[in-house]
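Troubleshooting: if your tokenizer reports a length mismatch, compare your output against this known-good record of 265 residues.
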Amino acid sequence: MSDGLEGSALGKATGYADQYDPALLFPIPRAPQRARLGIEGQPRFFGADLWTAFELSWLNLRGKPQVAIAHVTVPCESTHIIESKSFKLYLNSFSGTRLADADEVRRRIREDVSAALWHGGPVCARAGVRLVGPEEFDQQSVHELDGVNLDRLDIECDHAEPAPELLSAAFDEQPVEEVLASRLLKSNCPVTGQPDWASVQIAYTGPQIDQAGLLRYLVSYRGHSDFHEHCVERIFTDLWTRCQPIRLQVYARYTRRGGLDINPW
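Known-good structure output:
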């Protein structure tokens, strides 16, 4: 089954354009990976992929460079995601382009990304785009994910691919409400093999999830190759199926690479 990466710049030597070019965005269909999880059509969950782009620059009308941080929200109901290297190339194409102001940059990113997410189909949900100017950089905060720290557990780790059979819950006890967190999620780019490091937060109501089994399950992604979005959807689906919570939220914050982080929720 094709993952839609044919023709992508990922894993290849690439020149960097410095003139605005929305054709650089490379969509990847969500459907093949979701089909492997038994998800057909719209998923049972709602959420978004939260992108932070730290390397965004353009020229004002007098040719003076401008800089900003871009926060982009990609709705999970979109038919496609955008391959991250193509998004970096696209953002770099603004660097030699003269534009009126930050509002025009934001508008173009929103329109271009929204069109790519639906890849020729009707745009049913647009991307959200917010630009943060230099005067607000020092207000951007980074903090650890809240929750009971799973990493305190002394466990044996012997799986290098996702092992949902490690997940279990106390179905014969009263349901609980809790938030769990780990810094030990790691997977790999499916094309380049580069490591992707993340912290993950799991908030749920339902039968109490066995914490040792959950941590072993999260660690089992260390040898797994997939995109961030697909990994988090797999974690959600496995927890939903094996532990049968009443309510479930999975959020992963990945360490940025090349000035871009992708944080599925």
